[in-house]
Amino acid sequence: MAIMTTTSSLAFQPVLERIAEEIERTPGRGRPADYIPALAACDPRRFGMAVAELDGTVYGVGDWRQPFSTQSITKVFTLALDLAREGDSLWEHVGREPSGNPFNSLVQLEYESGIPRNPFINAGALVVTDRLHTRTGDAAGELLAFLRSESGNPALGFDQEVAASESAHGARNAALAHFMASYGNIDNPVPVLLDQYFRQCSVAASCADLARATTFLARHGIRSDGSRLLSRSQAKQVNAIMLTCGTYDAAGDFAYRVGLPGKSGVGGGVIAVVPGRCTLCVWSPGLDERGNSVAGVAALDRFTTLTGLSVF
Amino acid sequence: MAIMTTTSSLAFQPVLERIAEEIERTPGRGRPADYIPALAACDPRRFGMAVAELDGTVYGVGDWRQPFSTQSITKVFTLALDLAREGDSLWEHVGREPSGNPFNSLVQLEYESGIPRNPFINAGALVVTDRLHTRTGDAAGELLAFLRSESGNPALGFDQEVAASESAHGARNAALAHFMASYGNIDNPVPVLLDQYFRQCSVAASCADLARATTFLARHGIRSDGSRLLSRSQAKQVNAIMLTCGTYDAAGDFAYRVGLPGKSGVGGGVIAVVPGRCTLCVWSPGLDERGNSVAGVAALDRFTTLTGLSVF
Amino acid sequence: MAIMTTTSSLAFQPVLERIAEEIERTPGRGRPADYIPALAACDPRRFGMAVAELDGTVYGVGDWRQPFSTQSITKVFTLALDLAREGDSLWEHVGREPSGNPFNSLVQLEYESGIPRNPFINAGALVVTDRLHTRTGDAAGELLAFLRSESGNPALGFDQEVAASESAHGARNAALAHFMASYGNIDNPVPVLLDQYFRQCSVAASCADLARATTFLARHGIRSDGSRLLSRSQAKQVNAIMLTCGTYDAAGDFAYRVGLPGKSGVGGGVIAVVPGRCTLCVWSPGLDERGNSVAGVAALDRFTTLTGLSVF
Amino acid sequence: MAIMTTTSSLAFQPVLERIAEEIERTPGRGRPADYIPALAACDPRRFGMAVAELDGTVYGVGDWRQPFSTQSITKVFTLALDLAREGDSLWEHVGREPSGNPFNSLVQLEYESGIPRNPFINAGALVVTDRLHTRTGDAAGELLAFLRSESGNPALGFDQEVAASESAHGARNAALAHFMASYGNIDNPVPVLLDQYFRQCSVAASCADLARATTFLARHGIRSDGSRLLSRSQAKQVNAIMLTCGTYDAAGDFAYRVGLPGKSGVGGGVIAVVPGRCTLCVWSPGLDERGNSVAGVAALDRFTTLTGLSVF
Fold this sequence. Notes:
The structure is a homotetramer. The first copy, chain A, has helices at about 10-25, 35-40, 75-85, 105-110, 120-135, 140-150, 160-170, 170-180, 190-200, 205-215, 215-220, 230-245, 250-255, 295-305, and strands spanning about 50-55, 60, 70, 155-160, 205, 260-265, 270-275, 280-285. The first copy, chain A, is of the alpha+beta class. Chain A has one domain: DD-peptidase/beta-lactamase superfamily (Beta-lactamase, 3-Layer(aba) Sandwich), CATH 3.40.710.10. A five-stranded antiparallel β-sheet of chain A has the order 2-1-8-7-6. In chain A, strands 3-5-4 form a three-stranded antiparallel β-sheet. In chain A, strand 1 and strand 2 (about 60) form a beta hairpin. Chain A starts with 11 loop residues before the first helix and ends in a 5-residue tail after the last helix. The interface of A and B includes residues 235, 239, 240, 251 and 259 of A. Chains A, B, C, D: Homotetramer.
């Protein structure tokens, strides 16, 4: 079934092109997120995909150099940055179990005394950002510096319009933050935390940027300059959390179809990791009812089928 | 960190022995399940572990040849047997998402109209058994034949005392079955289904037996006699479900610590799969508060750390 | 606003006639319950209403002498019969708080360890029937004898077809009973209990019968023959539970609109009590989405508005 | 059982004195609320009780003239003031069903799209305050003016220390308000609303003040100066909501034991209404685990038993 008997890097380009052709012929792309204007305006027919090898070489197809709104994808990087500093004490403040509920549910938060189930639901990401902000004094700046460095793209930045829009529509995240604060699980003032959080969500980056920025997870924790961000064990752990919790209430389905650690955002992007081998990023703004890119997940599904590159 | 620079098979035996020594020195083993007498009587200091290579060679340590009550571990085999016959239509009757709730909760079943979240919570396993029984006329017999054949141990059998105990304490499973029947998601009469289900849970087998019987999942669907039970894609899918749903409400933690597809049972056993490489089974009857073997999970954690064999 | 400046009994007949005329002109009656054929076949335009004074004198209008399926209305009588025998120890096995959830939810049962919230949700009624059956050896027979005696209608009986239908569609009640049994909150074998329960639900009676049979609650516990069934305090308590829990998830709305203790059934009947003054029974088979008779509740609303007879 | 064969007003004083004596001899008073210092400092042995007749005559015993923190009791008055202005459109923004859950739960709010179950849970009271504030420009001021006028006590005021304390510990109410705002169910800026809300909770008043201020509900909507605040039907409705929802998750138990519309506050006060007859207010700061005054509920229970004055 696999068209690549050897997994040599040169073979990625034809695989990506074949996938892009198949996606092109596929009707039905879902709908862009509509809660803020900047996302709602996206054309659901846009599609880009990139693969980055361990040495940073990137292959791409379609709109792979087009910046888009990363949204929840940045939760992976914030988690890695805080885990690198704080280590296991983080897990006293956020769990690492799948939520089994829509991604911004308050229910389990209440039953579990203000400790979010995992770092990738909104509540959990707020906690991680809060802790990174306490440790660095500028969580969003820390994230941006990391993304610029790993992607090799110093032009990466926050999208002020998106950040302002998120803030204007951020009542539910404000509720989550206040609620966790009522349990003593938030250190910073809620308005400060929300500002940090919404700026992180607003980072604009391309498939090429994100595939490159993710390679430290395929390199077992080693950054692009050869320094270590995470221990081998921590890198494995972040991958594990991506696999079990990275795609909202569809993590089981994603693992079943794609079989790779992955993280999606409502901007239509998805990153994925083949440990020890490569990383991927795909973008298409149309979402399914669980908030994941329709064409993006389909493309990753095809990639693992065509290459046989799955963790299972 | 890994003591095996090559992953040659000969190296498994010293790894197992080192793990057994470490476990032996570790205090605290949890408590055996106490809802039926046969399980409550188990000594929590018992410990066995086996590794089976793709060709069926088995290495072991401690009580690795001692039969124990497999309990929920058999849910993996029943799932594979039904999936092999039925294919994707199974997924109209059971989901494949982590439950995010204790393993026999009725709550999500109600919110999701009688469709259990995945095949490894009790409700989901009842549905799979029901469907296999409809297709074969003898779900438990089919399971037993498969386990005997794959393990190479024709002496495997049901433990009548355990099955009778399960039945006597089975009010909650009866409730689940009647409840799903009220949604039209059960075909067979509830008493018939429960009898089939409790017999499956009662199978007694050793670590050696189960490690061997699981190798079809490491061989991408190929049985011990070279015939194919599952397609490569289906084998990947079963592994994915084990990783995301195999250890009750601790699947995230298990993925984080062990990083392998695994399935536990309240008898204290845990099976795990290193796709393309080997399978493992560990047994120690003392459980943590989420129903997983304390020493079993610790041993698998050590195994992946020492060998570097993780999917991440 | 009230048309009765004195609440003399003679004035009830014109009130009933005025209400019947208004109801006749009102379009929209909801839909009959459709889970069993005997109920689905009812004409939603049927309407009957009766008022019984403390001395048993009954006034009526429309189909007030037409027997219908009492369904959950009998839960009031079973509660009174068990409370009379058992006293306050009943409350260790069933609560007396509104459920805040649809009437056959399993959710709260799980959170509250098998103790149903109140005697009028299905789970609670199963517990009360179970306990009455343990005390009398024939809960359904006890209920029927009481209804015949209080209504003065010895022809009252079970509807065997309805009871058989209920049993055939009783999977959810079976689930509830098994679930509570798993917590040790059911004494009798589940099949025995279900048979008793479904027979109670099947009693056929008219508005006249039920208005008369309910008068012991308006007479503060005194039966029609002058003997005491309940203490004054117990009668007050049963009325309180009817007000807070008698109309499924619409108890607040019923209290708000009608302002009387009441109990509805999915057969379209509703009984209500004006303590110290009279009782009412209304019947119209069309239900709203919460299971209460549309015309029945409207008629009671009009009655309290026209007469000023409300507890508030 | 009743010691008052006639319910003449002169008989209230000996009833109150008998109750105070009985309460005095009763050990166990629960514990004061401890989430803000001003409440935690209260002596749980304090006890006061007052009865106000329809003409404003007040009888009292114990600490009946001692001001205490009214807390949630003021929710009744805010509801009446908004209902008087807005009428039934209020019910599109807040329900009138018992919550069946602890008093500040977020769960049902999520399941019911930001519409709180009733006006007496915190979420519902926030909505009512928000709406009254929109209509008057000063919800708290409106409330205070009403309480001063009806109680005849122009010295009533806000307790600034309590209001500040509430605000400092108000993270959970902030979460509720932001959460409802995310559903579009809050008009005013959340900080403005919270300030209004916490000031209302901080009103200090005595049993005498509150019993008098509540008499409009016993007079079917007529204020002390003879003007009408609520229609007869609206007054009945407020009483109905008090009965079904007025005492947190213990409304069923309160109806069962006391049998009167009532509203409690975590300051240890409880008001109750005998429609057409009188009103009561009792205060004792020790609370049970559901947030209701232990001695307060016991005293009301005794009052209805001794006088026979219950709505049932």
